[in-house]
Design a protein that fits this description.
By secondary structure, the chain is α+β, with helices and mostly antiparallel strands. It has 17 helices and 14 strands. Helices cover 45% and strands 16% of the residues. The C terminus is likely disordered.
Length: 442
């Protein structure tokens, strides 16, 4: 417990350094970055008619277990004795202690940061080798997109990737005592397509389509099948709550790509598995009886798997199986590569992203409405009414770079111009006294 607490403490100090030195197009285990940002970057470097045609799909073999201790001890800005103790601590399996001569602490809080810092610099090395001038960048089209230890490198041709780019990548990893996985590293033409972070990217003619991969769909159906198998005699209501959590999470992950047809396909298979589950549960009942008991018409949706669950006050409520097709398809807005959540110069940018995210989700709109009601609908700087036509920004009273959180107590709505003045002139903003009952109205 003490080791984990110390790792968490030092991670708070190390993370801002890692963010400042990180590759612009690295997206794994970093604040304010997600797989959707990595996929959007892939779209940006592959979608044009003049984009690269070859893709090196890279995977680092046992990345967290293979990184060299000597490199980490030399380059990570932490007390050497402390870092050496964490790296050499070993692990216990089945009652036996095993030494660790390489790799980062298994399950350690600080391990993702150490791995990212070890892999940062690959993008700069590729840029130095293949993109120093505009002519080289246009000729080679070498771009790196990395998420943790999974990455892709684009290139004009497969020959360029195999004979020139791959040796550079292997040399970089060798300096960290890591190497590419021979079974998971491939060079693919964009017209053949490849899977990355659960998505399939492929060009059809001159058009790049990004869709949920077959593997991702199989994983979803496997989870649904496992839940149904583990609950052969469960009531419909509690079973639906388990299924909805899996389906909604999967659909939200894929809602930024071309996924409507895949959602339809997944819904059909899930519906088929549920009917099979119901027939096994009631072997002596007819198909019509099962249909009347478990399936109902809800709005425009016909024959939805439905059931009842008990509320905290003892009353019953109806619940329905979530349909992936219900999830709206929304294009993701990629984070800027140089954005740093610890840099005060990017404070306004991240507040704008927070505002955008708020508008994209129902929960965010509820939060904005609550803030607007708490402020009597007025800007606390100028005292004028806040309107959608003029727009507003969400301001952090205590800046995020100083530890401020995205909670209501630390947020206030300001006019766009007032927000700019607050940052440029260093004004302090106090939160207005909240309106009684604002939460209930929101």
């Amino acid at each position: 417990m003490k080791d984990r607490a110390m790792q968490a403490l030092y991670a708070l100090t190390l993370d801002p350094i890692a963010e400042t030195e990180a590759d612009p197009n690295s997206y794994g285990f970093r604040r304010e970055r997600s797989p959707a940002d990595a996929i959007e970057q892939c779209f940006g470097v592959l979608a044009r008619q003049t984009s690269a045609q070859g893709v090196l799909e890279g995977d680092i073999q046992a990345c967290f277990d293979a990184l060299g201790h000597e490199w980490l001890l030399t380059h990570i800005p932490l007390p050497k004795s402390l870092l050496r103790g964490w790296l050499k601590a070993g692990y216990v399996e089945r009652g036996r202690w095993h030494a660790t001569e390489s790799g980062t602490p298994q399950g350690g809080i600080i391990s993702p940061i150490l791995a990212n810092m070890a892999l940062d610099g690959l993008e700069a090395e590729l840029q130095q080798r293949f993109g120093q001038t505009q002519r080289e960048r246009s000729r080679n089209k070498v771009h790196l997109v990395r998420f943790a230890d999974d990455f892709i490198v684009t290139g004009t041709t497969a020959e360029l990737l195999e004979s020139e780019v791959r040796p550079v990548v292997e040399g970089f990893l060798a300096s960290r005592e890591a190497k590419l996985s021979t079974t998971k590293t491939h060079i693919t033409h964009i017209n053949e397509g490849f899977d990355f972070l659960g998505q399939n990217l492929r060009k059809y003619g001159q058009k790049l389509l990004i869709r949920p991969s077959d593997g991702s769909v199989k994983t979803l159906l496997g989870k649904i099948r496992a839940i149904l198998k583990a609950n052969p005699q469960a009531k419909a209501g509690p079973l639906i709550l388990q299924l909805n959590a899996v389906i909604r999470g999967w659909a939200n992950y894929h809602r930024h790509v071309v996924s409507k047809a895949t959602f339809n396909k997944a819904d059909w298979y899930i519906h088929w598995m549920i009917r099979r589950w119901a027939r096994k549960k009631h072997r002596r009942k007819s198909a019509g009886w099962i249909k009347r008991k478990y399936f109902k018409t809800v709005g425009t949706r016909n024959w939805v798997f439905s059931g009842e669950v008990r509320n905290g006050d003892g009353t019953m409520r109806q619940v329905h199986l979530y349909s992936a097709v219900q999830t709206p398809i929304v294009r993701h807005r990629k984070i800027k590569g140089a954005a740093n959540p610890y840099d005060p110069e990017w404070e306004h940018y991240f507040e704008e992203r927070l505002r955008w995210k708020a508008r994209e989700s129902l929960r965010g709109k509820r939060q904005t409405l609550q803030l607007w009601l708490e402020q009597h609908g007025k800007c606390p700087v100028c005292g004028q009414v806040l309107t959608e036509e003029e727009g507003w920004d969400t301001h952090h009273i205590r800046p995020r770079v100083e530890g401020g959180e995205d909670k209501l107590d630390n947020l206030v709505l300001l006019h766009l111009n007032c927000h700019r003045q607050v940052h440029s002139r260093g004004w302090d903003v106090s939160k207005p006294r909240p309106v009684k009952g604002a939460l209930e109205e929101a």
